[in-house]
Specification:
By secondary structure, the chain is an alpha/beta fold. The chain is built from eight helices and 14 strands. It is globular, with a radius of gyration of 19 Å. The termini are far apart.
Length: 291
């Protein structure tokens, strides 16, 4: 890379990061700085790349357009970049991912888990935010993607890449968990491993013909209770586990009606389903009741 292109890329990354911050209303300056620092092209392989756009609410599958050349500046926009077009797997829209990460209120020195790490770009973003004083466990169920993430992340030696199902991998006590694949209910292990004050963000989705649709849920552990609230709608690739066909219809109804936004807690106590139960799953219940 020529020195001139390197300087141009620095400029593009900085503008890209500031634009993401403005579009998504990002509060964390450390997160904006991470987007300005981590080279996106390093994780996506050589160009040209296929950029995707979504017709939200109509079709989960993006419409892809190839960049005209392999200039890395082409991918410093708020766009999806294809990882595997046949499966509609993408390096997700930066403003969406940034808003979800911002909701976690990640601090320097914290231990964070990233479930659904893909090729590792957003794991590197997390590593920049927690700094070398913290650590990131990046979990990816697809072995080929996990291998790519390992190859991409040697420069971030505080990131551990794990190949496997993120719903059953035990990372030990953690401060925050970011789940980047749709589920119908959270893993009990995620809730168990949150430290007091720990935060979990995950896409609560029902299975539609075009993929997972639903809302992002923010859960905060407060002693033995878990406060919860929905932060916005989402369309995303579904997790291979944490699915329940019996919940699908009820979940679709709660999300479609907007009632899901009345969520205030995630209950783990045994109780009979009542009108406050929004998603009454086997081991947890998303409830409109404040616990």
């Amino acid at each position: 890379m020529s020195p001139a292109l390197g300087l141009a890329l620095d400029h593009y990354r900085r503008f890209y990061a500031e634009e993401i911050g403005a579009v998504a209303g990002i509060r964390s300056q450390a997160l904006i700085e991470a987007f300005a620092t981590v080279p996106r092209e390093h994780f996506l392989g050589p160009g040209p790349w296929k950029l995707g756009s979504l017709d939200f609410g109509m079709n989960l599958a993006p419409r892809y357009v190839s960049t005209e050349d392999a200039d890395p500046r082409r991918i410093y926009h708020n766009v999806l970049v294809s990882i595997d077009e046949t499966r509609h797997l993408n390096n997700g829209a930066p403003s969406a991912l940034a808003s979800w990460l911002d909701a976690l209120d990640i601090a320097v020195g914290e231990r964070v888990v990233h479930v659904g790490a893909g090729v590792g770009y957003y794991s590197a973003i997390l590593a920049q935010v927690v700094s070398p004083r913290g650590s990131v466990v990046a979990i990816e169920v697809d072995e080929k993607l996990a291998s790519r993430a390992r190859a991409n992340l040697p420069g971030w030696n505080t990131v551990e890449v794990v190949s496997g199902d993120g719903s059953c991998y035990d990372p030990g006590p953690v401060d925050a968990i970011f789940v980047n694949a749709g589920v119908m209910y959270p893993s009990s292990l995620w809730l168990d491993r949150l430290k007091p004050g720990g935060r979990l963000v995950y896409p609560l989705t029902f299975d539609a013909d075009t993929g997972g649709k639903g809302c992002m849920l923010l859960v905060k552990r407060e002693g033995e209770s878990y406060a919860a609230r929905c932060t916005g709608f989402v369309m995303i690739y579904s997790c291979t586990s944490l699915q329940d066909p019996e919940l699908n219809g009820a979940l679709a109804k709660q999300i479609g009606s907007g009632k899901i936004f009345s969520a205030q807690s995630l209950r783990r106590d045994q109780h009979e389903a009542d009108d406050t139960c929004l998603v009454h799953a086997k081991d947890s219940c998303l409830s409109s009741k404040l616990i």
